[in-house]
Amino acid sequence: MTKTTTRVLWAFVLTALGTASSVGAQATFTGLGDLPGGGFASQARAVSADGSVVVGVSDSGDATVGDEAFRWENGVMVGLGGIPACCRGGRCLPPNIDPCASEANGVSADGSVIVGASGGVALRWQGGVMTELTDDCSGPIADIGSGTASAVSADGSVIVGSCGEAFRWTELDGAVLLGTLSGGTSGSSGRGVSTDGSVVVGSSSAAGSPGVPAPGCLPTKGDGNVDEAFRWEDGVLDRLGDLPRGAFLSEASAASADGAVVAGSSQSDLCSEAFRWEDGVMTGLGSLPGAIASQARAVSADGSLIVGEATFELSPLQTEAFLWNETDGIRSLASVLMDDFGIDLSGWTLTRASGISADRRTIVGEGVNPSGFPEGWIAVLPQAIDVEIDIRPLSHHNVIDPFGRGLIPVAIFGSDDFDVAGVDATTLAFGPAGAPAAWVSLLKSWDLNHDDRKDLVSYHWTHETGITMGDTKACLTGKTLDGIAFEGCDAVLTEARCGHGFDLAFLMPACIWARRRRRVAKNVELGSDGLR
């Protein structure tokens, strides 16, 4: 019997998210404020791996700067400044670009490297030093002022962005342009990067027919080109396609840690629909009820969680932050926090979720605060609870027949830090599909691992678990009566076996009951003195 324990998955960790007064005292929801002076406005765009550093853009009190990139940590927002001159390489920026304005779009895992742009030049901030990555893009006059850095690898050594074309920057090679997809004549843009910097995602012009836009949507390019999401690796730019229906239009916004999962948006029946791409398949995520569009902005390190915004109106613009996972689909982030967990977001409107920390405990974004001003925010989750489970207790091999119709018993072991009597049985979910508990047994005598602590056994129908042939691990998730999320995992062996599991899972409680009845009957037969 092989046992493992893991941290709670994001889909369930989020259930413990709240404010200081909500369930789980360690969870917080905080407005980031803005830079001193000027009007009140800020946007959070990215977050470090552990959730401690947030970067974005804020209105600044410096009249010569306007919008200014910031770095936020421990409640303190610090402006990063921008490029003071408007002319680069003897040529001046277009008059519609404020050369002093700046923005921060990405941050390294430890928060020490920040990337963004100022005056149309891609920038890196590190150790208080601002470095220009793309100068004036070294392209035609139309490209001047188009440079921006969008994302950075975990260690800060690889930076991606756009400068007329998508680029990948390293200290050794500088900004190397990645080109365009076949037939593309309108450039490309790098938007996201894998943890090690080996995979870049974004959008590119490409030869193709734009097709007919969805009803009510604006037409796309009319120059024989389409915009298409791409994934770059080992010098090769691969097309990711687009969703069925509507005009041909897609763009990739972010990649998972290993670059295997890509998030972005594509036109479909909606003017824009968030998608998740993996193994060559692009899957639309839909949108919130009543919305006309959705846009994915960030994906978790393991690819299991996607955040962004849904659009309800274009004029005036009305959007709402969303959260997606495979089990629950796309949901309003604010509704999840308020309705499911009683979090008081009175006066707040969460308009966009822009970033997720690598440990999946922190989401950042932007919204409208109770005073009616645009403000960045950060939602930090409490530390996850690990529990130990045993699939098929009393069995030496956790064999599961994915084609079976029987019940699978799963034991949760009590410990000094976890009292199984506090488990909310209605929240238990087992397997990839989250099979609910058919019933739960909590008996004082069930100390399965002989540690003098009460254990709990739940039973789940095999066909509802979503376990498939080849799976090597299955997890049980749930919440305590206090609303704290937990998860435990155990190794399994999938094997097509007729009838395996049903007899044990179904008959074990009955056998225990029958054994106790026999003991009672025997004591009655022996008499009060125990002698026959």
Number of helices: 3
Category by helix and strand content = mainly beta
Judging from the principal axes of the Cα atoms, what is the shape?
globular
Low-pLDDT stretches are: 1-26, 138-144, 499-507, 524-532
* Residue-averaged pLDDT: 82
CATH fold field value of the largest domain:
Neuraminidase
At the first level of CATH, the class of the largest domain is Mainly Beta
- Total number of distinct structural domains: 2
Question: What gyration radius follows from the Cα positions, in whole Å?
Answer: 27 Å
Content of β-strand: 35-45%
Structure description:
The protein is mainly beta and 532 residues long. It has two domains: 17-380, Neuraminidase (6 Propeller), CATH 2.120.10; 385-517, Immunoglobulins (Immunoglobulin-like). The protein contains three helices and 42 strands. Strands 1, 32, 36, 37, 40 and 41 form a six-stranded mixed sheet that branches. A hairpin with a 2-residue loop joins strand 19 and strand 20 (236-239). Mean pLDDT is 82; it is low at 1-26, 138-144, 499-507 and 524-532.
Summary of the model, kept short:
With about 525 residues, the chain is mainly β.
Q: Topology of this protein?
A:
Blueprint: E1 3-4, H1 10-13, E2 28-31, E3 42-47, E4 53-59, E5 67-73, E6 76-79, E7 87-88, E8 91-92, E9 102-107, E10 113-118, E11 121-126, E12 129-132, E13 148-152, E14 159-163, E15 165-170, E16 174-177, E17 188-193, E18 199-207, E19 225-233, E20 236-239, E21 250-255, E22 261-266, E23 273-278, E24 281-284, E25 293-299, E26 305-314, E27 317-325, E28 329-332, H2 333-340, E29 349-356, E30 362-368, E31 374-380, E32 385-386, E33 389-391, E34 399-400, E35 407-412, E36 423-430, E37 435-436, E38 439-441, E39 456-461, E40 473-480, E41 485-491, E42 493-494, H3 502-526
Parallel strand pairs: 32-41, 34-42
Antiparallel strand pairs: 1-41, 2-31, 3-4, 4-5, 5-6, 7-8, 9-10, 10-11, 11-12, 13-14, 14-15, 15-16, 17-18, 18-19, 19-20, 21-22, 22-23, 23-24, 25-26, 26-27, 27-28, 29-30, 30-31, 33-35, 35-39, 36-37, 36-40, 38-39, 40-41
